Structure formats: C-alpha cells, structure tokens
Amino acid sequence: MWRIVEAEVYIDGETARSYGIGSEHIEIFDISVKRDEIQEFVSLLNRLCASEAHAYELVEDFLGR
Taking the model in full, what pTM does it have? Predict the structure, then answer.
C-alpha cells in the first residue's frame, strides 16, 4: 500500500512542505510541493498495485508527464 510522505525543504530561502511516496520498504521524498498531484499519483499506484521494485522508474514517468 502506497502513501504520501512529507518533508520540509528550503526553496529560495523559505521553508516549504514537499511531498513524496512511501510504502513498506521504500520512501522517496521531495517529488512535488503540490499535495493534490501526489495524492492522485499515490491513488494510481495503489489501484495498479505498483511494485516497489519499479518505484524510481514510476517517479521518473510521473515527473516526465
């Protein structure tokens, strides 16, 4: 089951909330500052039962869209 993970990042000297994805064995932080986009991505990963083995490729595809 995929979920949203959060972190604080610094952008142009200011703190911002950044979102990524996580599952049982992997977490990938700082994918986007737009929570709604990551929520849609996480929902898609869960609907498709996406494998952790392909997590980085899935993120690359998400960012390249």
Answer: 0.90
Query: At 13, which amino acid appears?
Result: G
User: What is the 8-class DSSP label of residue 2?
Assistant: -
CB contact at 8 A, 9 and 18: yes
Sequence-ordered list of residues with C-beta below 8 angstroms from that of 38, at least 6 positions apart, any chain:
4, 19, 20, 21, 31, 32
Identify any residues that bridge with 21 across adjacent strands, giving them in sequence order.
4, 28
Q: pLDDT tens-digit profile of 16-31?
A: 999 999 999 999 999 9
CB under 8 Å to 25, separation ≥6 — which residues? 52
Q: In this structure, what DSSP letter does residue 49 have?
A: T
Measured between alpha carbons, how far is 17 from 30 in angstroms, rounded to an integer? 9
